[in-house]
Amino acid sequence: MRFAIALLLILALACAASSLITQNQTYAWYSQRYSERTAGLIMALHLDDAFHSPWFIAITAFLCLNLLLCNLVRLPQLIRRTKAETRPEAALKLPGDVSAPDIRDAEAVFKQLRMPGPAPCKSEDGRDALFAARNAIGLWGAWVCHLGILLLILGFGLGQMTQRQYAVYGVPGQIRRIGDTECFLTIDDFRVDKRADGSVAQYTTDITVEDAASAGRKGGSASISVNHPANLCGMKFYQNSTGWAAQVDVYKDGAPIQQEVVCAGDYMNVTDKEGLVVMLNALYPDYVMTPGVGPSTASDQLNNPAYLYSVYYQGQVIGMNALMDGEEITIDAYTVTFSNPQSYTLIQVKVDRFTPLALVGGLVTMLGLLLALYVQPSRVWAIRQADGLWTVYGQSRKGGALFREQFEKAIDQRSASHASD
Questions:
Q1: How far is residue 172's CA from residue 246's CA, in Å, rounded to a whole number?
Q2: Cβ atoms 260, 238 nearer than 8 A
Q3: pTM for the complete prediction?
Q4: What pLDDT does 218 receive?
C-alpha cells in the first residue's frame, strides 16, 4: 500500500508538471519560449510528449502491477473471510457485537432483521442453535474497486499509447479517405444553426462512412454535432470546427481545364502544369482593408468576399494578393478564378480500441464502491437456553452502529409483541 501511494504521488506530480508544458511542439518552439538549455532538457526528458514517454509509461505499468499483486495477495484471505462469514461454526463461539437474552421467538427476530431463513445447527456444548448470514458479497467492495481501477488505468493507458487520430475536412458532396485506413467518409450535408441574435447555436454534419476493406463495404450514416459524436466502423467522429472554402477554376487559353473546392489553408496542384500550385491562404467573407492592420473581415456574412491567395511554381512564390469576386489571376497561358465561397466542416476522427476496457473499468469501480458503501455484511445467530428461551446475537462487518440500532429495534418490537400476548 505504501508503494502504491508513492506511485500515485509521483504520477500526480508528473501529470501536474507536464500540464505546465505545452505538448507536441518542436525544439525551435521551446527554445524560443524558454531557452536552448531548457528546450534541450524538455526534449531529452520527453516532456514534449510526457504522457507517451517511457518514464510515464513505466510509472503507470508499476502502478498497474502493484494493484494486480495487491489483489492477488488479498484474494485467498478474502475467500476465507467470505466462507467464514457464511458458516455458523466460527460465529457461535463469538459474543457478537450485540445480544439479547430471553427471547421467546428467535425466528421472528431473524425475520424482523430481514435475514434469510435461519439454518438449524448445534453449539459447541450441543445446544440447539440457529444461524443466518446476508450480504457477504459486501466484503468484496474494496477488492472489486481496486480491480476496476486497474482495468480503468489499463484501458486509458493502452488507449493513449495506441490511439490514432485523423482530421477530415471538406464541403458537402466530397468523399475523403480517413488517414491511412481503408475507410472513406462522405460529407452529405453541413449546417450552421444560429440563434435569433445571429450567434452560432450548433454545427451539424451528416456523414456516411464505408469500409473499403470489407467485402460488404460495412459502414453507416450519422449526424454529428458539437458534444454529440458518432461511432461508425470502430471509429469515433467528432464535430471539431469549421472554416471557409472556395471553388477554384483553372483555364488555359480561355478553356476550362480544372475545377476543385479548396479549403482555406489548403492548396491545389494544377494538373496541366507540373510544379504550379495555387493556395488559398484565407477567405474574408466581408472584406475590409485597414491601414496599418491589413486585411480582415467586418462580419461573418458573405457581403464582400475576398480570397487571399499564393501562387507557387517549383517551390518558389510567384504571386500573392487578395482577389475579389470576378477578378482573375493570369499566369502565362493560365487563368485562375475564385468563386462560390462556402463553409467547410472539420471532423476529428479517433480510433481507440481500448475504450471498452476503460468503460468496463469504470463500471467495475462503481460496482466496487456500491458494494463497499451500501452492502452491509451481517450475521445473526441464536442459542437456546436451558429454560427453552433463546439468546440472540448479531454482528456486522460494516456499519456497526446502524446494525446495532436495527437489532435493538427488532428486539424491542418482539418484547412489545410478547407483552401484548
A1: 12
A2: no
A3: 0.68
A4: 66
The answer to whether 347 touches 239, Cβ cutoff 8 Å, is yes
| Residue pair 188/207 in contact by the 8 Å Cβ criterion | yes
Q: Residues with Cβ < 8 Å from 44, sequence gap 6 or more?
A: none
Q: How far is CA 267 from CA 176, 231, 280, 309, in A?
A: 16, 30, 6, 9
Per-residue pLDDT band for 209 (boundaries 50, 70, 90) equals very high
Three-state secondary structure readout of 82-131: HHHHCCHHHHCCCCCCEEEEEECCHHHHHHHCCCCCCEEEECCCCCEEEE
How is residue 65 annotated by DSSP? H
Contact in structure between 164 and 350 (CB atoms under 8 Å): yes
Give CA–CA dist 36/32, Å, rounded: 8
Beta-carbon contacts of 365 under 8 Å, excluding residues fewer than 6 positions away, are 145, 148, 149, 152
**CA dist., res. 246 & res. 307, Å (int):** 8
Mean pLDDT of 117-136: 93
- Residue of 394, 374, 391, 390 whose CA lies nearest to 114: 394
pLDDT score recorded for residue 312: 95
Residue 127's SS3 state is: coil
Residue 203 in grid coordinates? 454545427
- Answer whether residue 318 shows pLDDT above 60: yes
